[in-house]
Each structure stands twice: as structure tokens, then as C-alpha cells.
Amino acid sequence: MYVEFDELTFDRPAAGVLRITLDGPGLNSVGPALHRQIADVWRVVDRDADTDVALLRGAGKGFSSGGSFELLDEMIEDPDSRLRVLREARDLVFNIVECSKPIVSAVHGPAVGAGLVAALLADVSVVGRTARIIDGHTRL
């Protein structure tokens, strides 16, 4: 059911629980493919009869370091890519809000960009002491 989401890792630690893990390079940075997948996965979760609750987490030392250099370069160089990413960002918000299954996020380390959006839009966000909530759109 989740084969098309090859940038995400899925497992079922208990009956009815779908664990979705961001597990990529650079503290789970979000490249072009993952940006689309993290927006779209919630529609599939919503239709998944085997899932009662979804848990979203990051692998390793952080939740997500935000957009990868590849994603940022695409947005800078190509207006069509910039529009695509903006649509995906809209879809991410809409699809999480519209998902009928409860979503729980487990946040540790940095949470930036699309990862931060997904983490904070979850129905329940469990935030560890090491979490760093960072809006990448602001000047630090």
C-alpha cells in the first residue's frame, strides 16, 4: 500500500499503529521526492483500513533539518519547481488536516520546514528536550 513512498520508512510496531519514519541524509533533509511524498502519504493513511493511528518520527539525531540543498536549488533556479513546491506545501497542510486518522508526531533534535509543518500539524505532538523548533523562513 505504501510502495510509492520510497523516501519514507514504514513499520507497524503494534496492531493498528503505522509508524512513518523520515530517514534520509543530512538529519532527514527533505529533497524534491520526499517533499511530494510527505504531502501525499496522508491521503493513503486516511484510506488504510489497517491503520488506527499514525506515528511520524525522524530517524537518528533529529526529526528533519528541512529542505535539502537540491530542493532549494530547484526552487531558486526554476519558477515551475517553485510553484510545485508551494502547491505541495499547501497539500501537506490540507492532507494532514483532512486525515481522519489521529496523527502523533515524536519530535527530537531539529525540526525545520516541511518536517516542522508535519510535526506541528499532528493531532498530538510529543516534543523531547532535545527538540529545536526552527522556522527556516526567518532570519536567525
Which descriptors would you attach to this protein?
2-enoyl-CoA Hydratase, Chain A, domain 1; about 140 residues; five-stranded mixed beta sheet; two-stranded parallel ribbon; about 40% helix
Map the helices and strands.
Layout: E1 8-14, E2 17-22, H1 25-28, H2 32-47, E3 53-58, H3 69-77, H4 79-98, E4 103-107, E5 110-112, H5 113-121, E6 124-127, E7 132-134
Parallel strand pairs: 2-3, 3-4, 4-6, 5-7
Antiparallel strand pairs: 1-2
Helix pairs in contact: 2-4, 3-4, 4-5
Q: How many DSSP H or I helices?
A: 5
CATH superfamily of the domain at 45-103 and 116-140: 2-enoyl-CoA Hydratase, Chain A, domain 1
| Major sheet characteristics | 5 strands, mixed
Query: What is the strand tally?
Result: 7
Biggest sheet: strand arrangement: 1-2-3-4-6
What do you see in this structure?
With 140 residues, this protein is of the alpha/beta class. It has a domain at 45-103 and 116-140: 2-enoyl-CoA Hydratase, Chain A, domain 1, CATH 3.90.226.10. The protein has helices at residues 25-28, 32-47, 69-77, 79-98, 113-121, and strands at 8-14, 17-22, 53-58, 103-107, 110-112, 124-127, 132-134. It has a 5-stranded mixed β-sheet with strand order 1-2-3-4-6, covered by helices on one side. It has a two-stranded parallel ribbon with strand order 5-7. A hairpin with a 2-residue loop joins strand 1 and strand 2. The N and C termini lie far apart (40 Å).
Brief rundown of the structure:
The chain is α/β, with parallel strands linked by helices and about 140 residues long. Helices cover about 40% and strands about 25% of the residues. The chain has a domain at about 45-105 and about 115-140: 2-enoyl-CoA Hydratase, Chain A, domain 1.
